[in-house]
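Task 17 of the worksheet. Students: predict the tertiary structure of the chain below and write it out as structure tokens. Keep your answer in the requested format; marks are given for formatting as well as content.
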Amino acid sequence: MTFEILVAFLTRLSLVLLFLPFSALDKVLNFADATKQAGQATSSHGVAKALILTGLFVEVVMSLGVLTGVADRLAAFILSGYCAVTAVLFKQFWRAPDFRLRGPSTGRETLWDFLKNFAVAGGFLLVTFGPTAGSVDRFFADPFGSTHPYSLTETQP
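Model answer:
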């Protein structure tokens, strides 16, 4: 394995490490608690379970896509949306009764988690669309294509 491939792999691993294995494993080991947390978004216990199972699928399958390079742009796009949706559903800093910018505040702590979700979403969008404006069209032309992350030559899918 060359240094360049190792860097590409570790970069992608750092993006998905939050989800696979940690968040996915947490959902499996603490399914009841995860379902209870999902109850913040819905009053239906069945829908809450479906949300957790959907999240588990997204975290495992899409993370593997980003890591392996198989349909990695689409996988990263889905993970970006997942980060944004989970921020809005579960990091509602604006609802905290003690939200303030100065002094102790659980709402402010939640704000940082909210912003971190969007920062990770931005990282996934870089995988999706590439670093330049000219690369955006490539995703829409072939959303299931690969960025060929472990190729040692520049490829234009």
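Marker's comment: The helical segments are 3-16, 18-29, 31-38, 45-68, 72-90, 106-129, 136-141. The chain has a mean pLDDT of 92.
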